[in-house]
Amino acid sequence: MDSRSEIRYRYAVSVILPALNEELTIGECIRKIQTVFHDNTIDGEIIVADSSTDRTAEIAQSLGAIVIRPEKPGYGNAYLAGFAHAKGRYIVIGDADNTYDFSDISKLIAPLEAGADFVIGSRFKGVIHKGAMAPLHRYIGNPVLTWMVNVIFGTRFSDTHSGFRAITRNALDQLNLRTGGMEFASEMLVMAAKEQLTIVEVPIDYYPRRTPSKLHSFADGWRHIRFVLLMKPLPFVAIPGLLFSLMGILLMGFFYSQGEVESSHLHTFILGAIFFMGGLQVILTGFLMKTYSIIHGYEKKAGIIEVIMNYHNLEKFILAGILLSLAGIIFGINIFIHWITINFGVLSQISTAIISLVLITTGIQVFLFAVFQSMMLLNENNGHA
């Protein structure tokens, strides 16, 4: 082993605790970890990534923990700062609010020593003590988010948002983690699944907090959903959008092919227009999400997105958008001419007017999509110049 590896793996285990005003519990967490180290003869270090304004840092330092101050606030940023300082072969992470029993560290390390890359402490396979998890989180939030991850990435996890985890340093370095907020929990697991790491779940107990929770249910939930969709936007964004668009085309085409739409079918015709325009917007948004994911290194360029990301093809999209809007304007001009021929009498071309509106709006959507997409690709194309 070279000198760099010796420095890197100075300890067998590094335990990282993100902390935000946890003076009531940080001491107990550290003492539990130290007991595990002592009883199992583990050469380990404890790193507290602290952003507190209370005595958390003072207490942690007095007990021998390494205290660091992350440059940026946020759950993910705390862990990223901790990872940068950690020198253990195995990395254990857990919240400093004493909701996880750090006496169970050995349960997480054992699968790593047996060859696993990543271990998750599953609260749903263990015991969730009374008052430890809000009903909204226990019966809706966590199960739904776990289901999303399992469906999208083909995994079989029971608890994708447990904060008590262990991972080998080598596996951690493969993940290239970067998110700074609560979505870090999703990113870590999703990237581990994408890298095909050997992932194991072990049952753990989950205990009530002594202090008010710092979670923001809907904001944090949205962060997780946003990240998961960013990783796989086409199946869950673009494809539903395509189905709605096709449904809209069929509805409008069926009625319009029979001549001017009668008033009895007009609402259905309008519904078709809404389906088409809404679906198209969802499709284009899915492509933008996919582009963002590729630019930031989460996905690889392939298939239809490779065609769309071609800078020269985007110029064709811009042209297509202009032509669609012009077609809509021509429909509108024809209606106006017809209005003149009937001496500005009562018009009965509502469906044609709707077609005109749909074409103009679709053209604007496609034009703006191509412009924004090309702006996102400026750096990439300049880099290849």
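^ that was protein a. below is b, sequence first then the tokens
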Amino acid sequence: MKTYIYIFIFFSFVFTACEDYLDKYPLDSISSNQYWTTAQDLELYVNQYYTRFPNDTRGDGSILDNNSDNLVETEFSSILAGTRVVPASGGGWSWSDIRNVNYFLTHYNTVESPWGSVRQYVGEAYFFRAYFYFNLLRNFGDIPWISEPLHNDSEELYMERTPRNIVMDSIVADLDKAILYMKNKGEVSASRLNSQIALLYKSRVCLFEGTWEKYHANTSFGVAGSDGTKYLTLAQDAAKQLIDGELYSIYGGDNPEIDYYQFFGQDDYSNNSEVMLWKKWDIDLGLFRWQPSIWGMGRGITKSLVDDYLCTDGLPISQSSLYQGDNSLNDIVVNRDPRLAQTIYLPTDPVNIIGSDITFFEKPDIDKSGSYLCVTGYQLKKYSNRWGDHLKESYYQCQIGSIIFRYAEALLNYIEAKAELGQVTQADIDLTINKLRDRVGMPHLNMDNIAFDSDWDFPSLSPLINEIRRERRVELACEGLRLMDMLRWRSHQVFVNKRPLGMKFSQADFPEMVIGTNVYLDENGYIDPYQKSLLSGYEFNEDRDYLYPIPSIEFTLNSNLSQNPGYDK
């Protein structure tokens, strides 16, 4: 049985269980005499943090990939365009969740229940503190490390920023406690985190920091004297421990032409071998998400992502004789990695099937506006479900489960960390990348026979690193990790002075559209959505834009804080 978050049950429990208590004791002043007495008190307290996982009523991870080089919206990314300014306040510099977790960690030991009944919730608190701190570190770099709740007269309110590697060590220590204290899959309620999820998250954050320190070395964003080896080793070890536990496996494999698509369109992941944590919806209870691909959603997949899918002979499109070009949507998927056709909509694809009533996809919504617009013409099919039994009151409402963590990431984290350490064997590739390729019937990657690709994003790196990064991009497309990958790899050269493109435009398919008025094309006929708004392409500043600016009010509150490179206080 998989771990899932059932929104309705969670909120019903929280608000009915604490209604009287809230009437007597405000949330910011919990009475130790009344509250910290039972294991159930601890469970109730940490339940609030499950809502901090990415939550979008579109219901999928794609919103977090918006404005990476995978997926773009109607408005360009201020991060990639280098147009961010220092905010007066806010801007992601938030500490309330960390303070509340710290309060838990300094009070849970007053509960008189046996350790065996409280350890799970203590482990969850350590997980969430690591989660909140990593979000801050990823965005701001050096940040104050605070491990106890502060008061108005606490000296720590005026402390300097703690170096990122020291913060990272503390994050790892918290995750190690979470791994130790939380129960294994199958030993804890299906609605909760477990030890294996903490291992996955440890592999994610350590891979991030290891590659960040490696590729940002000798820049203002790096860590003096570090090449990232320490964290890459931790990432490798955490992922391998999860893999060796054999509690999860890759879903499907019997139907390569549809398994990948079906994986992301299920209402219930309770018995799915790959999903580690997910969010459940129930239309009957008024809890629904939007069917994400019924319309364009004001976004679109980029030509860059589409071009990264290999051909069925295992070769890139620059080298394969099987490639049929991209003059039409149907052409681009011929002889290509099946994940491509299972990620974007194609003409005649069934969009919705209810009995004998079938609605077919005809053409992308590039001629629409607002939420109905597909910006690039490559319209996202991933996360949809063509079978209409999960649709009820509205054609657009559905209850497809939202995946938060899945096992495939562990395989990709492991192989990338091994490669960055220079320790990859063919057995490692067979254990990871080739298992993912087996699901869709793609040829195996042979590390001793990697075809050259003139279009590699990272030509200065080894062919193996390039292919591992390609596999990660394709398998995890539109799942919310791409921008994080771009930043940790210091990959500004991939997009600076360039604009994202879409599909090749066909006037015959859109006779009412006027080129240069309501659709813009580059010199080769590809949709160029930012042609008028990004005249010179993305102007990302490599000496500034890898981190967020700290809000200006924080320097008034704490004169010991320093601003990130390239920004004014």
